[in-house]
Amino acid sequence: MKKLVLLFISLVFVSYSAQRKNKDYSDILKSKNIYEINAFLRDAHPDDPKRSVLKPRVMAMMKDYIRDAPPGDRKVKEMQENLARLKRGPSTKISFEEFNAIIRQKQIQKYQQQLQVGQAAIVYTPSTPQNVYITASASAKASAAPIPDTEASEFNMLMAENPAEHKNKTVKILNSLFDNDPNSKECIVLIQNKSDCNIIVRIEGTGHTKYRLPVPANGDNSIVIEKGDYLLSSLVCGAQYASQKTIQKPLMIALGSSSK
Question: Is the pTM of this model over 0.70?
Answer without folding.
Answer: no
